[in-house]
Structure formats: structure tokens, C-alpha cells
Write a structure and sequence with these properties.
This protein has helices at residues 3-22, 45-53, 86-90, 144-162; strands at 42-44, 95-98, 113-115, 118-121, 142-143, 169-171. With 175 residues, the protein is an alpha+beta fold. The protein is globular and about 50 Å long.
């Protein structure tokens, strides 16, 4: 039921792990860092259902109210880490946003580096001291448009098979 989605998550995780291995001193975020864990995030139906169906959905959930994600516990650790959605897996890693698409993907990082191919961005905790974001090779960044298009196709197929609206997004909230 979630095979295509899990394959996408594995590819994202492998890519991020490779970049972290290549540039270990450039990643400052880690367990307990919740700078990017904000409220108001929405996900596709396949992501919400994957979280609900996972063992992680039974994890203790904090009742954070306000500006942080409701899935953070009192130590700012993600209670759904293994099942977290694509947006949570991407942020922190270097992201390439195709030129002209920055607003569409919700990019708000002021450190973005305009390039002919687009904008390179990541969490402002990463790639700031030892290695500057703008000094990365293009191959060290995830092409967000490719990931989002793949996720949209997976979601569309999932929704078609299960009778849901593929355009509908849902808030990232505990079930």
C-alpha cells in the first residue's frame, strides 16, 4: 500500500546521509533541535495515512500548542521520526529550488544563493562556517521539484486506488 512512498523516503534518506557523510562538520542540527519543526505544515494524503498506519503513530505525543510541531515531545524530539513526512526529511539538507519556483515551494530562507539553475537553500544552522552553502557542488543538493513531482505522482496513485481527492492536503497533526 505504501511501497512507492517508502521507496521515495529511502531514496531521500540515502541522499541526505551521503551529503552528511561527505560534509559532516556542516550539519549543526540533530536530535533535540526543533528550529524547523513548526506548526502549520500540511502533507499529502499518502503521507498522513502512512504516519497514522505506522507504529510511530502510537508513540507518545506532546500536546504542543502554538508555533512548534505537535509531534515534538518535551525534549524537542520527534515522536514520529521514522514515519516523518518528506518535508521533514528534506529540510536541513541542501535544497535546489528551480529558478522562478522559490515562492511556490515556500522558501523563506534569507541565505538562499541565486544561481542560474535556481536557488540553493537549507536550514540556516547548516553550511555556514566550515563550508558555505554557495560553495557546495550542485550534486550535493536535492532537487526539490523532482522530489515534489514524484511525491505528487505517488499521492495521486494512492488516492486514486483508495477513493480520495489527490489535490487535498491535510495539516500535520496527531491522529
Amino acid at each position: 500500500m505504501f511501497d512507492n512512498y517508502r521507496n521515495l523516503l529511502q531514496k531521500i534518506d540515502a541522499f541526505v546521509a551521503g551529503v552528511m557523510k561527505k560534509h559532516p562538520d556542516s550539519f549543526r542540527c540533530g536530535p533535540g533541535c526543533a528550529k524547523c519543526c513548526v506548526s502549520g505544515i500540511s502533507v499529502w494524503r499518502v503521507e498522513a495515512d502512512h504516519i497514522a498506519a505506522s507504529k510511530a503513530s502510537n508513540a507518545s505525543k506532546a500536546s504542543n500548542v502554538g508555533e512548534t510541531c505537535t509531534f515534538l515531545d518535551d525534549q524537542n524530539r520527534c515522536t514520529i521520526y521514522e514515519a516523518r513526512p518528506v518535508v521533514c526529511r528534506l529540510w536541513g539538507a541542501p535544497l535546489m529550488i528551480p529558478a522562478g519556483r522559490e515562492g511556490e515551494w515556500g522558501i523563506r530562507d534569507h541565505r538562499s544563493d541565486p544561481r542560474e539553475m535556481g536557488t540553493l537553500t537549507c536550514c540556516d544552522l547548516n553550511f555556514g562556517e566550515d563550508l558555505k552553502l554557495q560553495d557546495l557542488q550542485i550534486g550535493d543538493a536535492i532537487n526539490v521539484e523532482t522530489v515534489i513531482k514524484t511525491l505528487a505522482a505517488i499521492n495521486h496513485l494512492y488516492c486514486k486506488e483508495n477513493g480520495f481527492d489527490p489535490e487535498e492536503r491535510t495539516p500535520l497533526l496527531p491522529t
